[in-house]
């Protein structure tokens, strides 16, 4: 698991590294500059004209060090320093090291609109993690020019003006790429910050490994290795009973497709047996579309009303295409009153919980809830920003002793203990109807196979995004449909299992 740390934790790590490696502060900055430059030179050749905009803190010190290294590699570099705060010692040291290489252009007033006209690339080293209040005045004026520049904008550590672990206000640099030191910052994972962060990249600056390992955090992001460790190979002497019997409660008149997508994904996720409970109208369609599944037929024509029995199922997945008819609400109530094993709860099943809040507390411990942001808002209430939403998500997971998955570009998975895992697979092609139904199927299929709910959620969300990425690789983002995720799920399993699936 890769950690996401707060600014205070990173500051502690910096200081600890300086003291215990030991390494001089200026040499640690030198390492940071070198790591940035190594990343940079792979992406820009020496014909590109570079502008570096520096503050007078340590982020600005990085900017000066980067300037020196790029000049030594024969890039054309202009360096601007925005006058203001008291320069730090490492900024001063790097200013001295730069003397004679380039003349620093000082900015004391609103710069002309043409300031960056001669730059192909603008490197933003105005402020880093030391930002403590919104940027205004001269800083805001410079940022306005940076954002208006017809150049590739690359931020050092964080886009200036963005707070790493709190909501941001004031002027913020809109970087296309952010090269961040050692660990990603929490703010990078929120949709509202995407216009500032662009694509983020992590470079290793060699902060103290021991302390990095020992530093506790509630926030992680998920990589292929983490997922591989959670994946379980199938046993030689296993049989269909080994892999669970899932019940999928899904579909209503006009929404049988949701049941098909979830059912197909469930089977491709490796479940032993699948029964789908669906209204009469869905029966013939499901038997043809998903021949591997058994169908339990509701007495009602158009929506589900009565589940004959929930006994014997290892897991229930409920929600896709379900509708919210009164009879369906009654059925949900009955399920929650009698079934005590984990469930996967999605879509209309979540909306039913939001509208009948007494049911929420009946959700069996160890379940997985998969709201998109709007459904989450109905469940947990409005929030002012994504930091607040994440706190509410942790609270809900604790309260229900379940895993809460809020879907988005970086789907966040919260354990009952309040630990958050951000998923890193997936792409905008998946922003299309039915992909959520596929996720419900995958998660239900994994839970049926006795994965813990947290492992099922981390593995399932990752596989779902990876199937989307593999599909996009062949088909492009524009044409991706939810069924493609099911088609590419086997390839995703193969990738996660290292070819052993
Ligand atoms: N040894 C270290 O601590 C290392 C630090 N590094 C760099 O140092 C950065 C952090 O440096 P600093 O802590 O000096 O912080 P910054 O360079 O981000 O900010 C510098 C100063 O700006 C002032 N400031 C904050 N908000 C302001 C506002 N809204 N308007 C005006 N002034 C404001 C603060 O008082 C602070 O002293 C990191 O992001 C990274 O780029 C790297 O060189 C790696 C090593
Ligand atoms: K910056």
From TrEMBL:
<feature type="binding site">
    <location>
        <position position="59"/>
    </location>
    <ligand>
        <name>K(+)</name>
    </ligand>
</feature>
<dbReference type="InterPro" id="IPR030677">
    <property type="entry name" value="Nnr"/>
</dbReference>
<keyword id="KW-0456">Lyase</keyword>
<dbReference type="GO" id="GO:0110051">
    <property type="term" value="P:metabolite repair"/>
</dbReference>
<dbReference type="GO" id="GO:0052856">
    <property type="term" value="F:NAD(P)HX epimerase activity"/>
</dbReference>
<dbReference type="Pfam" id="PF01256">
    <property type="entry name" value="Carb_kinase"/>
</dbReference>
<comment type="similarity">
    <text>Belongs to the NnrD/CARKD family.</text>
</comment>
<feature type="binding site">
    <location>
        <position position="124"/>
    </location>
    <ligand>
        <name>K(+)</name>
    </ligand>
</feature>
<feature type="binding site">
    <location>
        <position position="437"/>
    </location>
    <ligand>
        <name>(6S)-NADPHX</name>
    </ligand>
</feature>
<dbReference type="InterPro" id="IPR029056">
    <property type="entry name" value="Ribokinase-like"/>
</dbReference>
<keyword id="KW-0521">NADP</keyword>
<comment type="similarity">
    <text>In the C-terminal section; belongs to the NnrD/CARKD family.</text>
</comment>
<comment type="function">
    <text>Catalyzes the dehydration of the S-form of NAD(P)HX at the expense of ADP, which is converted to AMP. Together with NAD(P)HX epimerase, which catalyzes the epimerization of the S- and R-forms, the enzyme allows the repair of both epimers of NAD(P)HX, a damaged form of NAD(P)H that is a result of enzymatic or heat-dependent hydration.</text>
</comment>
<keyword id="KW-0630">Potassium</keyword>
<dbReference type="InterPro" id="IPR017953">
    <property type="entry name" value="Carbohydrate_kinase_pred_CS"/>
</dbReference>
<dbReference type="GO" id="GO:0046872">
    <property type="term" value="F:metal ion binding"/>
</dbReference>
<comment type="subunit">
    <text>Homotetramer.</text>
</comment>
<feature type="binding site">
    <location>
        <begin position="128"/>
        <end position="134"/>
    </location>
    <ligand>
        <name>(6S)-NADPHX</name>
    </ligand>
</feature>
<comment type="function">
    <text>Catalyzes the epimerization of the S- and R-forms of NAD(P)HX, a damaged form of NAD(P)H that is a result of enzymatic or heat-dependent hydration. This is a prerequisite for the S-specific NAD(P)H-hydrate dehydratase to allow the repair of both epimers of NAD(P)HX.</text>
</comment>
<keyword id="KW-0479">Metal-binding</keyword>
<dbReference type="InterPro" id="IPR004443">
    <property type="entry name" value="YjeF_N_dom"/>
</dbReference>
<keyword id="KW-0413">Isomerase</keyword>
<feature type="domain" description="YjeF N-terminal">
    <location>
        <begin position="10"/>
        <end position="213"/>
    </location>
</feature>
<dbReference type="GO" id="GO:0046496">
    <property type="term" value="P:nicotinamide nucleotide metabolic process"/>
</dbReference>
<dbReference type="GO" id="GO:0005524">
    <property type="term" value="F:ATP binding"/>
</dbReference>
<feature type="binding site">
    <location>
        <position position="160"/>
    </location>
    <ligand>
        <name>K(+)</name>
    </ligand>
</feature>
<dbReference type="InterPro" id="IPR000631">
    <property type="entry name" value="CARKD"/>
</dbReference>
<dbReference type="GO" id="GO:0052855">
    <property type="term" value="F:ADP-dependent NAD(P)H-hydrate dehydratase activity"/>
</dbReference>
<feature type="binding site">
    <location>
        <begin position="58"/>
        <end position="62"/>
    </location>
    <ligand>
        <name>(6S)-NADPHX</name>
    </ligand>
</feature>
<protein>
    <recommendedName>
        <fullName>Bifunctional NAD(P)H-hydrate repair enzyme</fullName>
        <ecNumber>4.2.1.136</ecNumber>
        <ecNumber>5.1.99.6</ecNumber>
    </recommendedName>
</protein>
<feature type="binding site">
    <location>
        <position position="372"/>
    </location>
    <ligand>
        <name>(6S)-NADPHX</name>
    </ligand>
</feature>
<keyword id="KW-0520">NAD</keyword>
<feature type="binding site">
    <location>
        <position position="139"/>
    </location>
    <ligand>
        <name>(6S)-NADPHX</name>
    </ligand>
</feature>
<feature type="binding site">
    <location>
        <position position="157"/>
    </location>
    <ligand>
        <name>(6S)-NADPHX</name>
    </ligand>
</feature>
<keyword id="KW-0511">Multifunctional enzyme</keyword>
<feature type="binding site">
    <location>
        <begin position="407"/>
        <end position="411"/>
    </location>
    <ligand>
        <name>AMP</name>
    </ligand>
</feature>
<dbReference type="InterPro" id="IPR036652">
    <property type="entry name" value="YjeF_N_dom_sf"/>
</dbReference>
<dbReference type="Pfam" id="PF03853">
    <property type="entry name" value="YjeF_N"/>
</dbReference>
<keyword id="KW-0067">ATP-binding</keyword>
<feature type="binding site">
    <location>
        <position position="258"/>
    </location>
    <ligand>
        <name>(6S)-NADPHX</name>
    </ligand>
</feature>
<feature type="binding site">
    <location>
        <position position="321"/>
    </location>
    <ligand>
        <name>(6S)-NADPHX</name>
    </ligand>
</feature>
<feature type="domain" description="YjeF C-terminal">
    <location>
        <begin position="223"/>
        <end position="496"/>
    </location>
</feature>
């Amino acid at each position: 698991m890769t950690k996401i740390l707060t600014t205070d934790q990173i500051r502690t790590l910096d200081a600890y590294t300086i003291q215990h490696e030991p390494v001089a502060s200026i040499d640690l900055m030198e390492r940071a500059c070198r790591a940035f430059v190594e990343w940079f030179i792979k992406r820009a050749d020496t014909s590109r004209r570079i502008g570096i905009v520096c503050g007078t803190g340590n982020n600005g010190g990085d900017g000066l060090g980067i300037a020196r290294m790029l000049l030594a590699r024969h890039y054309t570099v202009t360096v601007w320093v925005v006058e203001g705060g008291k320069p730090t010692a490492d900024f001063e040291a790097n200013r001295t090291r730069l003397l004679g290489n380039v003349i620093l252009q000082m900015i004391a007033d609103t710069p002309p609109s043409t300031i960056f006209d001669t730059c192909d690339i603008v490197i933003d080293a105005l402020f880093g993690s030391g930002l403590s209040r919104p940027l205004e005045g001269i800083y805001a004026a410079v940022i306005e020019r940076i954002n208006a520049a017809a150049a590739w904008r690359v931020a050092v550590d964080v886009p200036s003006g963005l707070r790493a672990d709190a909501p941001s206000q004031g002027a913020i640099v809109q970087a296309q790429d952010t090269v961040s030191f050692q660990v990603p910052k929490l703010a990078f994972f929120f949709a509202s910050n995407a216009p500032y962060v662009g694509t983020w990249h992590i470079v290793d600056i060699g902060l103290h490994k021991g302390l990095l390992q020992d530093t506790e955090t509630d926030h992680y992001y998920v990589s292929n290795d983490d997922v591989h460790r959670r994946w379980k190979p199938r046993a030689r002497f296993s049989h269909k009973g080994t892999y669970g019997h899932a019940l999928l409660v899904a579909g209503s008149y006009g929404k049988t497709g949701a049941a098909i997508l979830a059912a197909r994904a469930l089977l491709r996720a490796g479940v032993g047996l699948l029964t789908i409970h669906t209204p009469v109208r869905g029966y013939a369609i499901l038997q043809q579309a998903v021949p591997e599944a058994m169908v339990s037929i509701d007495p009602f024509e158009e929506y589900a009303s009565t589940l004959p029995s929930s006994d014997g199922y290892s897991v229930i997945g409920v929600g896709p295409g379900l509708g919210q008819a009164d009879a369906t609400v009654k059925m949900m109530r009955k399920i929650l009153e009698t079934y005590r094993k984990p469930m996967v709860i999605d879509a209309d099943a979540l909306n039913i919980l939001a509208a009948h809040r007494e049911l929420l507390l009946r959700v069996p411990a160890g379940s997985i809830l998969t709201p998109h942001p709007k459904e989450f808002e109905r469940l947990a209430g409005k929030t002012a920003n994504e930091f607040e939403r994440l706190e509410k998500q942790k609270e809900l997971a604790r309260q229900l002793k379940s895993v809460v998955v809020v879907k988005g570009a970086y789907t966040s998975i919260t354990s009952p203990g309040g630990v958050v895992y951000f998923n890193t697979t997936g792409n905008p092609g998946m922003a299309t109807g039915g992909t959520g139904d596929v996720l419900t199927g995958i998660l239900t299929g994994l839970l049926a196979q006795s994965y813990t709910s947290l492992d099922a959620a981390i593995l399932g969300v990752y596989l779902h995004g990876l199937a989307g990425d593999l599909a996009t690789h062949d088909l492009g983002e524009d044409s991706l449909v939810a069924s493609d995720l099911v088609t590419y799920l086997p390839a995703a399993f193969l990738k996660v299992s290292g070819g052993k699936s």
